[in-house]
Amino acid sequence: MTTNAMDDISLALNPPRVVKRRRGPIRVARSPSRVWPLAAVNGRAPVVLDSAHPGQRGVDLAYPRTAPDDAIACCPIGTPNGTATHILPAMTAALAIDDGVIRFAGRLGNGFGMIIDHGNGWASHYANLQAIAAIRTDLYRPREQHVRAGDVIGYVGAPAPDAFKRLYFELWECDRERCYVPVDPRPHLAGWKLLEHQDAFTPAPPAARTEAA
């Protein structure tokens, strides 16, 4: 790999917050709004799964199966990609909810996890990632890695081998003692923007196919 290619990768992983010009610095604008940690795939919006653990601090996210035969070819029932009620297509991307700095990216449980500091007293925590799009901080000491809202930070895996895949997500807020504590993310998700991704392998839900026709 050439030096120029390595420089391009370094800049992509660490975009500058301040761009210096002759007439002074120009600050890079923040993203206008937060986004869901999963995008809608071909019009299929993600949903919060019912938790099997009442004390769970965050939420599990996946996609609904609208009928028994919905998306059965790509996400068969009883596999890591499908249950009778939900699906999670292969290589589903997890997204940064807002601009921020990656504080942790590394091995966590059966897969990988990530913590992003968004500034202004907020942070987000992701788990059940089968791969991450960042330099691991548990193995290396990289320069600060910055992300923008909507950036792909990894790909969703399962909490245990052969279990159904789902993204685990927590939203943290800084309290009066300057410690981050988890808050219920569901009221916040309701007001966040839902990005749209297109996937050639995942069929759109019946309602979306009807509207397109």
Mean pLDDT score: 86
Low-confidence stretches: 9-13, 15-29
User: Count of DSSP helices?
Assistant: 3
Name of the CATH class: Mainly Beta
Largest sheet: 11 strands, antiparallel
CATH fold descriptor:
Glucose Permease (Domain IIA)
Shape: globular
Cα-based radius of gyration, to the nearest Å: 19 Å
Question: Can I get a quick summary?
Answer:
It is built from three helices and 15 strands. With 213 residues, it is mainly beta. It has a single domain, classed as Glucose Permease (Domain IIA) (Distorted Sandwich).
General description of the model:
The protein is mostly beta strands and 213 residues long. Helix content is 10%, strand content 34%. It has a single domain, classed as Glucose Permease (Domain IIA) (Distorted Sandwich), CATH 2.70.70.10. The longest helix is centred in the N-terminal third of the chain and has 11 residues, at 3-13.
